[in-house]
Write a structure and sequence with these properties.
Blueprint: E1 5-7, H1 10-24, H2 28-32, E2 35-42, E3 48-50, H3 53-61, E4 63-70, E5 74-78, E6 84-96, E7 101-113, E8 116-126
Parallel strand pairs: 2-8
Antiparallel strand pairs: 1-5, 2-3, 4-6, 5-6, 6-7, 7-8
Length: 136
């Protein structure tokens, strides 16, 4: 049988809140510093990205602005405290320099090892398009 999870510590949530501030400020250097050297992002499109300063510099250079708004955070830790996970439902809005905008709901899991973000796994749902066409 595998290891059990228990409630995680506030420091894990604080780390992700800090990452969120750097992300919203498009601060590539400080954001990249919160990740482990071999960190990966598994995007909702199915891509695996290696995280480094260049990744965020390139991404932020394509944007006029962005807004990531968490709607809650929960954290769990493996019983031996070797790995923590922070789970977050959020709204993500991206305003590209080419005038294209993108908005969606995200659910993300941030895996934290030794105080650094090791892995992000993303799931996405588009905003509903027909809420104004029906009622209960």
């Amino acid at each position: 049988m595998g290891k059990s999870f228990k409630l995680g510590e506030q420091k894990n949530i604080d780390l992700i809140k800090k990452a969120g501030r750097y992300y919203n400020d498009m601060d590539a250097e400080n954001l990249a510093s919160l990740f482990a050297d071999d960190a990966k992002i598994y995007t909702y499109q199915g891509d695996m990205l290696s995280v480094d300063l260049q990744l965020y510099e390139s991404y932020f250079s394509s944007l006029d602005s962005l807004e990531w708004t968490p709607h809650g955070m929960s954290t769990q830790t493996i019983e031996d405290n070797s790995i923590a996970v922070v789970s977050i439902p959020s709204t993500d809005k991206r305003y590209y320099k080419d005038s294209e905008n993108e908005e969606c709901f995200l659910f993300e899991r941030f895996w934290i090892v030794d105080g650094k973000i090791q892995t992000i796994v993303q799931y996405r749902r588009n905003f509903p398009t027909n809420y104004d066409t029906f009622s209960f």
